[in-house]
Predict the 3D structure of the following.
Amino acid sequence: PGTTPAATARAFAAMLPPGAPFVEVPRSAGVDRLVGASPQHNGSTNGLLTRVDGGVLFLDAIDQFPTELVEVILDAHHLGYNRLERNGRSETFPSRFVLVATSDGPIRPRWAAHFGLSVDAMGLHRAEHRVEAARRQLHFEADPTSFLAEWEPRQRELKRRLDLARPADVPEQLLTPIGWLTAEVSVVGLAADVAL
């Protein structure tokens, strides 16, 4: 459990389809760890950007990551592939993923443009919500197996509903209000318009 934005993002991993990777990038990672080394004998690299293909890449506190690292991630996210350049050779590997991040402060507009949705995580301000959150946390710490068993049916139902979700056709008449809305709040880039 936990109520932090990072705990919420990590909980998302349990909702992914079977085989879809959830990769958290450590702040200590270097570019080599992201893009990988020279291709292995099976043709793949050991880079995080290659391993995350088809899954979710998570950065906890993106605003605290080195700029160079974030730029490499955003390029792969935008292009849908990871470029590995070693010994005068250049190879590309698929790297299509959902990008999820938390932030402890403002992030650069260019970075923000890669996120279609953002949520301001507000603390729990009502006493009954805080009591319930504390009760659940204490239950989890005392008996994780029992806690997980209690919540498993709800988790399974949510996962079932997510598995059934499909992209919807967007009626042409919705594009104008979406454009007005995102322009009104000064959204950078088109990721939000497309996500809506």
